[in-house]
C-alpha cells in the first residue's frame, strides 16, 4: 500500500490580522471525495473522524487546523456555497463551473481528479440511421440545461430540455427525450441502457475554487491554502 507523505507546510495558514471565524472548505460527496482524500492528506488536512462516514448526520466538521472547517455537500452545490460566500474554498468539477458560470468564483488549480466528460448520447438504433446535424429541434434530458442549450445552439439546433437530476439513461427508452447530455466516465451505463456516446462536449476534471471576495479580504490565509494544494499536487506528481 502506498505510504502518503505530506509536503513541508507552514503551521496554520490563518494569521491574527485575518481571523474572523474559520475558513470553510466545501467538499463534494461521493466518488470525487474518495479520490480527493490522498490530496487532502498531502496538504496536511485531517477532518474529524466521522467526516468519512457517509452515515454521519453532521455536515460541518472541524479539522486539525483551528481556522479551517470542512463541509460535505452535493457536488452541484459546492459552487453555489462558494459563489455566495457561505464557503471560502471548495472542490468541484469543471462541469459545474460550466453550467453555472458564477462570476464570484476563481478556479486557480486543476486538481487532475474526477476525470470524465460531458457528452451527448442517444439510442444505438437512432445513431445508426439519423444525423443529428440535420435536425432543427431536439428534446434532451439532462441535469445540465445551460450546457445543453449552448451546445446545440452552436450547431443551429433548438433544444427543448427536460431537466432531470438522475436516471437520464431511461429518458430515450421511455419517450421522454430523444437524446441525453450527461457525465460519462467509462460508458458502461450507457451501453447497459442501449445508448451510445455520439459527441463529447467537454473533458472534465475537478478544480480548487475560491470565493473572489474572500480572496481579497483574507488573502494570506486563502493564498496559503492554494499554495498547500499546489505543493501537494507537485508532491503527488513527483512520486
UniProtKB/TrEMBL annotation:
Localisation per UniProt entry: Cytoplasm
What this protein catalyses is: 1-(5-phospho-beta-D-ribosyl)-ATP + diphosphate = 5-phospho-alpha-D-ribose 1-diphosphate + ATP
Give the metabolic or biological pathway. Amino-acid biosynthesis; L-histidine biosynthesis; L-histidine from 5-phospho-alpha-D-ribose 1-diphosphate: step 1/9
Going by the record, the broad EC class of this enzyme is: transferase
Q: Which Pfam families match?
A: HisG (PF01634)
Give the InterPro entries listed for this entry: ATP_PRibTrfase_cat, ATP_PRibTrfase_CS, ATP_PRibTrfase_HisG, ATP_PRibTrfase_HisG_short
Domain ATP phosphoribosyltransferase catalytic: start-end pairs = 74-230
Instruction: State the protein's purpose.
Output: Catalyzes the condensation of ATP and 5-phosphoribose 1-diphosphate to form N'-(5'-phosphoribosyl)-ATP (PR-ATP). Has a crucial role in the pathway because the rate of histidine biosynthesis seems to be controlled primarily by regulation of HisG enzymatic activity.
Domains (record comment) = Lacks the C-terminal regulatory region which is replaced by HisZ.
Q: Which PANTHER family match?
A: ATP PHOSPHORIBOSYLTRANSFERASE, ATP PHOSPHORIBOSYLTRANSFERASE ATP-PRTASE
Protein name (record): ATP phosphoribosyltransferase
The primary gene name is hisG
Amino acid at each position: 500500500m502506498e505510504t502518503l507523505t505530506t509536503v513541508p507546510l507552514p503551521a496554520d495558514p490563518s494569521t491574527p490580522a485575518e481571523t474572523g471565524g474559520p475558513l470553510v472548505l466545501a467538499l463534494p460527496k461521493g466518488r470525487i471525495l474518495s479520490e480527493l482524500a490522498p490530496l487532502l492528506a498531502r496538504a496536511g488536512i485531517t477532518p474529524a473522524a466521522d467526516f468519512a462516514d457517509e452515515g454521519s448526520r453532521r455536515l460541518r466538521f472541524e479539522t486539525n487546523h483551528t481556522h479551517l472547517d470542512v463541509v460535505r455537500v452535493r457536488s452541484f452545490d459546492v459552487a453555489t456555497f462558494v459563489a455566495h460566500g457561505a464557503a471560502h474554498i471548495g472542490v468541484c468539477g469543471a462541469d459545474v463551473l460550466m453550467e453555472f458560470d458564477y462570476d464570484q468564483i476563481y478556479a486557480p488549480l486543476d486538481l487532475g481528479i474526477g476525470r470524465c466528460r460531458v457528452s451527448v448520447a442517444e439510442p444505438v438504433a437512432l445513431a445508426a440511421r439519423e444525423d443529428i446535424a440535420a435536425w432543427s429541434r431536439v428534446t434532451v434530458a439532462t441535469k445540465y440545461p445551460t450546457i445543453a442549450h449552448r451546445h446545440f445552439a452552436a450547431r443551429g439546433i433548438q433544444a427543448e430540455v427536460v431537466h432531470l437530476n438522475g436516471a437520464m439513461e431511461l429518458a430515450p427508452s421511455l419517450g421522454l427525450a430523444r437524446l441525453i447530455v450527461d457525465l460519462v466516465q467509462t460508458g458502461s451505463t450507457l451501453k447497459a441502457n442501449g445508448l451510445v456516446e455520439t459527441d463529447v462536449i467537454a473533458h472534465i476534471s475537478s478544480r480548487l475554487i475560491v470565493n473572489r471576495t474572500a480572496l481579497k479580504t483574507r488573502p494570506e490565509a486563502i493564498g496559503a491554502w492554494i499554495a498547500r494544494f499546489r505543493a501537494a499536487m507537485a508532491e503527488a506528481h513527483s512520486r
